[in-house]
């Protein structure tokens, strides 16, 4: 199996942002600049998430998707605020190859089955935002990790598969943005119990974290954000073209999160290739 490396771009308004535990969002730049750079440097896919879409009952990525799809020729997955079949259709028409459903899927699971029938299962991914409970169980959350659903993660993953989803994006909210590594136990629990591809998200701080989630967690693909973003910012810092929406002090001061190693896609793929992991190179 060839493992995919997916660059995630969290979007708030016109800007690329990044937080920790899906909160404390910091503006990092213009998403189209990051997307072009990741495409040119070997990303297998891009994942665009409108991180406030569900909160405001909207998805405002259509213009950004159209810009990206015109210049970038790798699969593009879009999530956030997609609630209906018409929303899915509109996002796909804008240039996306896949959609990622979370809140809509939890509130109306039949949309997974209907969307898979209309657009094909390979077009429909379901995102599960998981938080570990004191008793060791994992529960699924919606609205960018803000609201508990009462759904146990493994039970929900199995139902998602049975309804026809093409893949599951499993995000550890506890690990997201921390640089502490992916939640191997969470990903392994899912990958060992379902047959559709499992995409691990949340926690990458070094190339070895990616290697471990593939070899120990059984991930078919990995999502990377902070490592790539900080590498881009370090080499392409530009704070002059941001629409005034969000916190740019982080950028002005030239800061990075110390637990996360700025690493390029080429460096990640070289590391994985050296370790014997099958990747697109």
Question: Can you describe what's shown?
Answer:
By secondary structure, the protein is of the alpha/beta class. The chain has a single domain (4-274), classed as Aldolase class I (TIM Barrel, Alpha-Beta Barrel). It contains 11 helices and 12 strands. The chain has helices at 31-40, 62-71, 85-94, 103-107, 110-119, 153-162, 184-191, 207-215, 226-236, 249-252, 265-274; strands spanning 4-12, 15-20, 23-29, 45-50, 76-79, 98-101, 124-132, 138-142, 147-152, 167-172, 198-201, 221-224. The chain has an 8-stranded parallel β-barrel, surrounded by 7 helices. Helix 1 packs parallel to helix 2 (62-71) and helix 8 packs across helix 11. The radius of gyration is 17 Å and the shape is globular. It starts with a strand and ends in a 7-residue tail after the last helix. The model has no long low-confidence stretch (mean pLDDT 88).
Q: What is the percent of helical residues? A: 25-40%
Please give the order of strands in the largest beta sheet: 1-4-5-6-7-10-11-12
Q: Give the count of helical stretches.
A: 11
Q: Briefly, what CATH class?
A: Alpha Beta
**Unreliable residue stretches:** none
Any guess at the CATH architecture? Alpha-Beta Barrel
Please provide the ordered H/E string of secondary-structure elements: EEEHEHEHEHHEEEHEHEHEHHH
- Beta-strand proportion: 15-25%
Shape: globular
**Tally of distinct domains:** 1
Please give the largest β-sheet.
8 strands, parallel, barrel
Distance between the termini: 13 Å
- For CATH, the homologous superfamily is named as Aldolase class I
Q: What is the average of the pLDDT values?
A: 88
How many strand units? 12
Structural class: alpha/beta
* CATH fold category name: TIM Barrel
